UniProtKB/TrEMBL annotation:
Protein source organism: Bathymodiolus thermophilus thioautotrophic gill symbiont
Source taxon at top rank: Bacteria
Protein name: Bacterial Ig-like domain-containing protein
Amino acid sequence: TWQYSTNGGTNWTNGTGTSFTLAEGTHAIDAIQVGQIDVSGNVSSVVKNAGAIVVDTSDPLFAGASTANVGINAAITTIVYDAQASNLNGGNADDGITYSIKNASTS
């Protein structure tokens, strides 16, 4: 079996499956702890988070749409918008996102 604590080891919860979900907010260094107990009752060393963990499930906020004027046949060197994204589940951060340029030819 395994247990975890989200408050620095003050309270422990029996784990189920192979993971647990952290509440939204900032979790300080050593706040998240995990330990195991085998069938003989031997207790493992407790593993603690070495850095602060921030859980933020809020949707991103944008100040508003911006317009960029690009001349016809101009060199394509201007960054109109540079979105930064992270995929915390691994893989490509752009998975599931479609980019398009209005009235643009795909040829």
